[in-house]
Structures are given as structure tokens and as C-alpha cells.
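Exercise 7. Given the encoded structure of a 191-residue chain, write a plausible sequence.
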């Protein structure tokens, strides 16, 4: 049973989405920040356990990045609704994820199994998104000196970095999966 521990940790991360969203919605940014940090640490822990002990599973391969994306997406949307993140940044971040999900579903429908393998650009993108969200929550938590420093780092530099890496990462996925689709199509037509 212990080999399911990474999956249990991932499920806990899914559960953390709801109170994190509740705290943000109600302006309790320090509490939301704590839950975001717990989610981030648990993401690292479940990944280390899965890789280190080979406790990997198909569920974990799908659920782990999904938990990250849902949490990041929810926080981006809520902070945008509240006016703390520019609409155009959230549009790029959410739009990128929607393009990737639609592309993955289309690929799976047309060609079958899809191997999900995050690229380095995508990992940097996710790291930047989480960093900007955490810094935004620090800024909103009014933690004196840290809040001022976080605010300076986030706006506008952090927003432009997130937008830029989201666009590059999304384009990278589109190009990579288009090449895979063309290759699959050629293979199936050659037979």
C-alpha cells in the first residue's frame, strides 16, 4: 500500500484547491499562501517518492500535472477577477492550457495513446507561474518588507515573464505534437 503514497499526496493537492480558492475569494491571502506553499512542497515530495522508489502509476502521470494546472488556473482566475493579475496574462496562461488539453484530446482521439512528457520550457513556465502567484499572495498578505519586494518582482517583470514563457511553451507543445501527429499519420498511411 505504501507505493500508493505519491497518488495519495496528489489527491490531497486536489483537495487543497478548494480551501485555497475559498481563502482567496474571501481575501484571506496569507492562508491561501500557506496552502499554495504546502501544495508546492507536496508536489515535490510526491514526485521524489514516485521517481526515487519507482512508485509510478498511470494515474499519477495524469493526475499530478492536472492537480498543478487546476490549482494554478483557479488561483490565476480568482486573482484576475479581483484585479490583482492583468486579464491579458490570465488569458494567455489559461488559453495555453486549453490549447494543450484540446490538442492532447484530439491526438488521443485520432492516434490513440499519448505519452505526456513535459518539456524543459514547460517546467520553467510552470515554475514561473507558481512563483508569480506566490509572490502576488505575499504582496497581498501585507507582510511589510516582503510584500513590497514581492510587488516589485511581480509587476511588471513577473507578468511579462509568465506571459512570454506561456506563449513559448504553448508553441513548443503545438510544434512537438504536430510533428508527432504527422509522423503517426504517415506511419498509419504507409501500412
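Solution.
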Amino acid at each position: 500500500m505504501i507505493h500508493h503514497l505519491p497518488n495519495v499526496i496528489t489527491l490531497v493537492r486536489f483537495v487543497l484547491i478548494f480551501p485555497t480558492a475559498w481563502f482567496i475569494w474571501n481575501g484571506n491571502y496569507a492562508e491561501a499562501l500557506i496552502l499554495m506553499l504546502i501544495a508546492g512542497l507536496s508536489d515535490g515530495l510526491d514526485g521524489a517518492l514516485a521517481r526515487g522508489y519507482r512508485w509510478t502509476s498511470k494515474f499519477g502521470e495524469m493526475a499530478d500535472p492536472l492537480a498543478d494546472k487546476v490549482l494554478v488556473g483557479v488561483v490565476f482566475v480568482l486573482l484576475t477577477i479581483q484585479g490583482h493579475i492583468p486579464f491579458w496574462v490570465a488569458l494567455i496562461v489559461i488559453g495555453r492550457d486549453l490549447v494543450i488539453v484540446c490538442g492532447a484530446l484530439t491526438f488521443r482521439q485520432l492516434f490513440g495513446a499519448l505519452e505526456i512528457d513535459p518539456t524543459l520550457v514547460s517546467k520553467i513556465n510552470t515554475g514561473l507561474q507558481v512563483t508569480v502567484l506566490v509572490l502576488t499572495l505575499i504582496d497581498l498578505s501585507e507582510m511589510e518588507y516582503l510584500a513590497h519586494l514581492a510587488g516589485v518582482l511581480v509587476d511588471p517583470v513577473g507578468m511579462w515573464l509568465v506571459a512570454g514563457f506561456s506563449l513559448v511553451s504553448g508553441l513548443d507543445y503545438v510544434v512537438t505534437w504536430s510533428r508527432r501527429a504527422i509522423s503517426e499519420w504517415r506511419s498509419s498511411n504507409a501500412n
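Remark. Residues 145-190 form the longest helix (46 residues). Students should compare their own answers with the one above.
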